[in-house]
Each structure stands twice: as structure tokens, then as C-alpha cells.
Amino acid sequence: MVFADPGEALTRARALLDADPSPLDASVAHQVIGIWQRDFGDLRLALHHLRRARECAARADSADREADVLATLGVALVHAGRTREGLAAFERGVARGGGHTRARVLYRRAYVWWVLGHHREALEDVRRAVPVLRQADDVIWTARALTLRATVHLALGAVERAEADFTAAEALWDTTGQEHDKADAVESRGLAAFRSGDVPAALRLLDEAEERYARLGTPTFMLNIRRCEVLMAAGLAPEALAEADAAIGKLDGIGGQSTRKAELLLAAARAARPAGDPHTAIARAALAVRLFAGQRRTWWETHARLVLIEARHAAGRGSGRLVADAAAVAGKLASFGAPAAPEASLLAGRIALGLGWTADAERHLAVAARSRRSGPPLARMTGWAAQALRAQAAGSARGVLEACRRGLDVLDDHRMTLGASELRARATEQGAELAALAQRASLVSGGPRRLLVWSERLRATVLSTPPTRPPADPELLSGMTAFREIASRAEAARMEGRPVPALEREQRRLEREIRSRTLHMRGEVPGGGHRFDVGRLLERLGDEVLLVELAVLDGRVQVLLCGRGRVRRFEAGLLAAAETEAEHVQAGLRRLAHPGAEARLPVVEAAGRRLEELLLGPAAAHLGGGPVVIVPPGRLHRVPWAVLPSLRERVLSVSPSAGSWLRARETVPPPDGCHVLVRGPGLATGGAEVPELAGRYGCATVLEDDEARVPRVLEELDGAALAHIAAHGTFRADSPLFSSLRMADGPIVVHDFERLDRSPYRIILSCCDTARLASVGADELLGLVTALLPLGTAGVVACSAPVNDAAVVPLMLALHKGLDAGLSLAEALRDARAAQPGDTLHQATGWAFSAFGAA
């Protein structure tokens, strides 16, 4: 019962001990309490009760009872880090038990071998146990043994064997009432899905397992560890680190298993490095190494050493000793048959290259490169990265480009299995090194055109295909409705000065639930999206339009000037300096949004001149007088480009990539699309431009007051030719897909827009922060604007800074006047800026808005 209904089993065991039981029954009761405390509570109490259980079994003179207790005690001792004592208990248990009981003891020793990382010994004990358990028709223990065998197969990389055992075990579990074991089986299937490369299915199954555990009231430390691994593969390293650290705190709070703490520390260390915190990774990994060593868990200790070496290398430590350590770890992992062995060889080769030890590097990289032909996607990418580094060391630019292409093709296939745009964007981080290697090789040998192709390779790839539509999931839809209600109540409370902690907690809970459900979606589009074609781009640009793509190589901006049938390259300034200057410009625009800040205008203009030198360099003199499209890297998405002197007076648009500009340029407007005007609540001007625009357009659909509710707004936006939304915008840096526009019934978020069949062909967002985006992955952007572009929107006007609401109104009216005259959004915005009063407030307001896309 302890794995069917843990709480009820604990209650009954305690009641039995209160009733003065016989030694045999007392042994069972103490063992149940020991199991409960071992797996769900305090390990010290577990050892106390299990020793009492053994004493009672000895008094009852039952060899099988004593053998069974010794097996449970052996597991507890190993989890407490007392490995030698635990294995000795198993030796006595195997000797004392007979037949069926011995098979159960062997199963539990196999579990311990798995915990310790002795996979061959684990398989041998399971091989001896399963036939006996089957012959005894012991369904529960046979299912447990099959589940364990599958888990060991996964650790060895044998995914197909694991899936066969998981399937057989699940069929047996369906005939039992073992709810905890069933939850464990679902969790294990999630791990198998992850190992086979299906991240959305893994997340869905792990969430389902967590719900099952929650109904039983049992902790989920193993599940936390597995979810960390999946989150890492999905590019969600900060979330993985937070999950691991929270689980460690909870485990410490209940005096839980030392073995699980070591595994959680390893998970935290693995997550901290890609989360940008190598020093935390070093601290967590070093502690995990000490714990694993004390627990005599060599397999785990070796994996922790790999993470420790990776973290030290990420912190800038490179030495011959580190190369030797990485090589030793690679050798040990290979002897274990661990799938991480190529990763360790790649690390040894990478460090050796940094030291100039080319012969050593070649030896280690050649070993790592063998993994490029088979295995899960990330393992194959490790192999292709090693092959690319080998080619680079050999001076073969062609070899570098071929290896990078093959590796990124693997990433594309993996990325397109992900349905959620957030996961697609973050997954590109795995290919950042390959893209950078290819760009360097192109810069040396391939000329500007090839550099442009590789600059586009991992830039805004999430926009290359529409996201998978969220399913018509009643729970998801009701969660979105509840989220809007809570967010609306919280906003009202803030405005009235009332406390909102309870509402904010519920809002965060609903956000986690919604995000979790969207991450479960699988991708539906085969292949990696459209391939970028330089010739097609130059043809579309013609002789008038210039596209300026900014690539970053080794921290310096490379300007690729495309148009008039050719691609030219210019070198500009340092990216870090440009980012700092862009922050100064943003701060200046925030000040200029308020009357009385005229003295700041020269400061902003001077910062704009410095930005131009850093970002365009000598290319600024070659822009001519025609329209310009700027394609910045993700880290420069907040630059208000109209502040740069050479761009201030011209037709200017911004695009996340040259490929997305091409798609926008070729997007056909809807033949019978309508105009939609939306006015949200709480605006300082009341959205004063909307009534005037309604009079101008006549037949436009106007949604305001109680009609501006999210379901109705989405219904009208779907397939519209033009939408103008005057509503407060909120950018969420912590969760960009919950960036929102405020409607009458609460926020409309990016997740809502992704449910549209076709977003408006043109859309104007007239309030603050609507153009702010989060840079994630290799060079991806998440936010309101990027949610619209792959859904049929060809052009967006939005704002990247706080603006003065009153100054926005005349700018918007002038913008629509240009659209009436047949101008594009970029042309109309240029003319609207020129038509504004010459004071600082209106000038800064015009600079804060940008046109995106090509419509």
C-alpha cells in the first residue's frame, strides 16, 4: 500500500504499532514507516524504523521477513551516503532470502546499482529477478523490475530497449492500484520521450506525473531532476536552475536523501553555466563531486567532474591540467558506456585548441566527432561541433562550413518538432557556436555574400514558419480567461492603492499553467523552414532600397550593405559599446517624454551620432538617399533607429532578419480585409485618435469600452487589412510571451495572438513599450511584434520607449493620412515625423516609433 496510497499506509502502520502487534506484524509496520520516511520524509527516522523492523523480524524468526527488511534498509543506507553498509545489508539479504523473496531483494539491489551508476551489475540482478517474479505471478514487482531495467537502458543510451520495457511495465501497472508506481511509470515515459528527442512529449508526461504525485501528496525530487534535464535541452536553463535550487531547499527542509541532494546539485550546476552563472556552476558541481565520492558513486562523480571542468572553462580557466582532467573524464565515461563521453572529448579538444596544442586537440576532437552520425539530436550536434573545430584547426574553411551546415540541419530538424515559439527560439542557443564558426570561416574565405547567408542561418528562425496553433484545449482556454480576470483585478487594486500579493501569486500560478500547456505542443511543419536566398533578396530590393544587416563577430559589428545587385561589407565598432550607448539613448527618450526636459535633447542627439559611428561606421556614407531596411542582431533590438543622423530623414523600416523582410515583402494583403480600431481603458488621452480615425474610415469596426474585450478583439483582428490598437502596453522581460495590451476584460497577450488564423496585414500599436522584445537563443526575439510577423502581418508600427500620450495623437493621425494616400507604413511614419511640431516633446515621440516589416 505504501506506493498505492502512501498517506493511508503510514496511518495504518502507526495504528498497528499502537495495538501491541506480534513481532512479525510489528516488523511490517516499522518497515512501512521506514519506506515512507526514506522516500517522502526524514532519512534519519527511516533508518531508525528499519532497524527496529529488522529486530522484530529476527524475534519472529522469519528469514524471508528479515531478508526483505535488509533490502529496504540497504536502499536507505545507500541514499544516506553510507554505500559500504548498504551493500553489506544486501549481501546478507540475498543470503537470508529464498525464491520469491530473494528475487525482490535482487530487484532492490539492482535499483541501488543504478543509483550508484553500476549499470551492468544492475542489469545482471534484474535478469536474475524477473523470471522468478513472473513465475510467482507477482505483477507489481515484475512491473517495477521492468521499469528499472528500462531506466538503466536509458542511462546506457539504449532508447528502443527502454521503450519496450516501459510499454510492458505500463500494461502491468494498468491492472493494479499502485498509484505512486503508476505516476513513476509516467515520469519514466517522459524521460524516454526526452531521450528519443521529443521535448514537448517529455514536458507533457512530466507534468502529468507531477499532477499524479500531487494527488498522493508525495515529494517529486527525481522528477525535479529529470525536468531540469528536459528544460536544459529546451534552452530554459534559468528555469532549470530555479527548479533544482527550490528542490534542494525542500529536500534539506525534510532531512531527505543525500543521494538525491547530490543529483539535484549536479542538475543545478548543469543549468547554472548556460544560465550565465559559471561561478554558481563551479560551486554546485564541486559540492556534488564531494558528495558522490563520499557515496562511492563513481559514475555520477565522473559526470559531476565533467560539469565542473566545463564551468571552470566557461569562467576563463584554461590549462594543461584542465585538458588532462577532461580527457580522463572522457575515458571514464566511455568505459561506462555513458552517452556524455563525446561531450567530454569535445571539451578536452576545445581547451587544447585554446592552448594551441593542435595535436592533442585533434586526438580528442576526432573521438568526439564519431557521435555526429547517430544518437539524439544534441549528441549529433556535439559531433558536428567537434568536426567543425577539427576543420578549423586544419585551416579548411570548406570543412568548417560543411560541418556547421550539417550540425545546424540537425538542429533545424529538432527545432521543428517543437510547437511553442518560445521553445523554438531558445533551442537555437544550441547552434550558436556552429553559426559563429561558420561566420568566421566566411569572413576569411567566402566574401560578404557568404557571410550574409551565415548571418541569417540562426537569425529569427522562429519567424520562418508560423507557430503551431495552441490546441482548442478547454483547460487552456479557461486558464486564459481566469488569467485575464485576475490580472484585471490586480491592476484595479493597484490603481486604488490596495495590496495585491494574493492576486499576484494567483496570476503567476495561472501564467505557469498556461505556459506549461503551450510548451507541450509538438511542431507540425516538416523541415527547417525557408532557406535564405541572397539572389532573391537582391532582386526584391532592386536599385532603390538598401538592406543593412548587422552581424557580430568576436564582439565587433560587421555591416553588410545589400542592394543594387551586390553585398558589401564594412567594419564598425564594438557591440558592447553600442549596447551601452543605446541604453543612454533610451534613458534620454524616457526623460524627453515629459515636458520640461528640453535640455536633454542635445545629449540624446550626441548619443545618436556615437551610435551611428559604432553601428554603421563607414557604411553610413554609402546609404544614398533611398529607403533603408535595418536588420539588427537581437541584442540591439532596443535601438531607436530614427535617432541616428543618417537615418533620421529617410524611409526606414526594421526587420528581425533579411528572410523575414522578404516574406513580409511577398505577403499579399487580404482582398476584402476590413479596418479595425481598438481603444483600451486607462489611456491619458482616452485614445483620442480613435474617434477621429473612425470618422475618416467610415466603415471601420470600432471596439471600445465594454466591446474591447479580448474574445471580440481577436475575432475582429483575424484577417483584417489594418488594425490600430490604442491600449496600454506592458513588456514582460521575465516572460516575453506574456507581454500584453490592456483590454476591457484584462490583458491580451502574445499567446492570444498566436491563436489567430491570420493576424492583420498591417497593425499599428500606438502606446509605450509595444516594440520591446526579449533576445533569446542564438539571435532570436520574443515579443508582440515577432508574434505577429509569421502569422500574416507584413508591417507593424510600434514603440520601443515610454512616450507622451498627448504627443502620440497627432503623430498617429498624420501616419494614417499617409496610409490613406497609398504610402507604406515606413513612408507614412517618415512623413508623420516631419509633419509634427518642432518642439522636443513631439520630436522625441516620433523617434520612439519604428516601422517593422515591409508593408
UniProtKB/TrEMBL annotation:
It comes from the Bacteria. Residues 606-836 form the CHAT domain. Signal peptide: none annotated. Pfam families: CHAT. This is Tetratricopeptide repeat protein. It comes from Streptomyces variegatus.
